[in-house]
Design goal:
Elements lengths: L1 E6 L2 H17 L4 E6 L1 H10 L5 E4 L8 H6 L1 H18 L3 E5 L2 H13 L3 E5 L12 H7 L2 E4 L3 H8 L4 E3 L4 H6 L8 H8 L6 E5 L4 H19 L8 E6 L5 H5 L9 E5 L2 H7 L2 E5 L2 H9 L3 E5 L3 H10 L7 H6 L6 E3 L5 H13 L1 H17 L5 H16 L1
Parallel strand pairs: 1-2, 1-4, 2-3, 4-5, 5-6, 6-7, 8-9, 8-11, 9-10, 11-12, 12-13
Helix pairs in contact: 1-2, 1-18, 4-5, 5-6, 10-16
């Protein structure tokens, strides 16, 4: 069968790549065309010849109402090009992965043209913009969810769904990065062996420009604390960013702060603690077992909008899964060098605090279920298509 997959950011590329592995395993004749990134492209070339990647998400993901409004023309063109390409490919299913601002429009247009539409990794309607549920019911043939707390929510809202666990467990447990030792990682980064703190500043340019100045000031302050003079720091660079995106904020810190790309799991696995921009990376830290503090901030304009529409107490997936705070979230005005310094020192120095956090992490992993989620979802998608034949 033919599958057209659309993922619009780094987390979608990760989940899309694992879903593709499942589709190829369950359907040896699978023909896949996709919008995504390097991970999806690598899986494609392991299983198919030709060019499957239509558009790389690195070419322009935006976040926030202000940025969306500023990119309306390019958005409309991308949408038109996408639908034209879907028509040319004529897939058995259009599979949308998160990325709701774009994918909901694709869902509507693809549905109206008679394509079977699957939505994988549900848009976070339980957090904000609940009105989108109407579109899920109207334009999506089957929703595939990945968080246990979503089951009761979508059942209550009357949305049919399929739940087969969370694919991030497979991504972590099968990651080559988990096999890399601290010594190997630090050597590749040009640092001597020893403890280090991980910094994951986000995948979008706006996230990096917000997080990095605060994190670098934190580094300066922790370096001035007796006993921490020799602490090192590794920034896990996002695939969509360049060395310069991070380096412009690191003046005077080049000897102790290094940026590495393509080794996020290795960085988290070997770090003493992590400062993480909220998102999939935060849940990865939970599953890997790295004590963390989450930081998130945006423009005053975007934050004023978010305060009005977001209706959840936590923004981090791990805390949402647990139903309480396993780790601190420093949001907007609370994201300061002083607060980072205080929290990271507690993560490093308070053994009981670390132990409790790791126990909470174990519960989060348990709640997400076992292995094999990506292949199970692929099998369920194929089953849905076979029903329709």
């Amino acid at each position: 069968m033919k599958y057209y997959i659309i993922a619009g950011e780094a987390s979608g590329d990760l989940h899309g790549s694992n879903l593709m592995k499942g589709l190829y395993a369950e359907d040896p004749k699978a023909d896949i065309r996709f919008w995504g990134g390097s991970m999806m492209d690598a899986v494609f070339h392991e299983n198919q010849s030709g060019e499957g990647l239509v558009k790389d998400y690195n070419e322009g993901a935006v976040m926030g109402l202000k940025e969306v409004l500023a990119n309306l023309f390019s958005f409309a063109k991308k949408l038109k090009d996408c639908i034209a390409d879907i028509d040319a490919f004529s897939p058995d299913a259009v599979i949308l992965i998160d990325y709701p601002g774009f994918n909901f429009r694709v869902a509507e247009l693809a549905h109206n043209k008679g394509y079977k539409v699957f939505y994988y990794i549900a848009p976070k309607v339980w957090a904000s913009r609940e009105s989108r549920i109407r579109k899920l019911k109207q334009y999506v043939d089957r929703l595939f969810i990945v968080f246990p707390f979503e089951k009761e929510y979508f059942k209550r809202k009357g949305v049919d769904f399929i739940y087969r666990g969370n694919p991030l467990i497979d991504a972590i447990d099968g990651s080559e990065g988990m096999k890399i030792s601290r010594e190997e990682l630090l050597k590749s980064a040009g640092l001597p062996d020893g403890p280090f703190i991980a910094i994951l500043a986000g995948s979008r340019k706006g996230e990096v420009s917000t997080m990095m100045p605060v994190c670098m000031e934190f580094v300066r302050r922790l370096s001035a604390v007796p006993g921490y003079e020799d602490m090192k720091y590794i920034i896990a660079g996002a695939p969509s960013r360049s060395l310069q995106d991070y380096g412009q904020y690191m003046e005077g810190l080049e000897d102790k702060v290094k940026t590495v790309f393509g080794k996020t799991h290795a960085v988290l696995h070997n770090a003493e603690a992590a400062i993480v921009n909220s998102g999939t990376a935060s849940l990865e830290a939970c599953l890997i077992g790295t004590p963390q503090v989450v930081g998130w901030a945006t423009s005053s304009f975007n934050f004023s909008i978010a305060k009005r529409i977001v209706k959840i107490d936590s923004i981090s997936l791990g805390n949402l899964i647990l139903g309480r705070k396993a780790f601190r979230e420093l949001l907007q005005y609370h994201l300061t060098p002083e607060n980072l310094l205080s929290e990271v020192r507690r993560l490093l120095e308070d053994e009981e605090y670390r132990k409790t956090m790791l126990e909470d992490y174990a519960q989060i992993r348990h709640e997400l279920g076992g292995k094999g989620a990506s292949r199970a979802v692929a099998k369920a998608m194929i089953g849905e298509l076979q029903k329709a034949e």
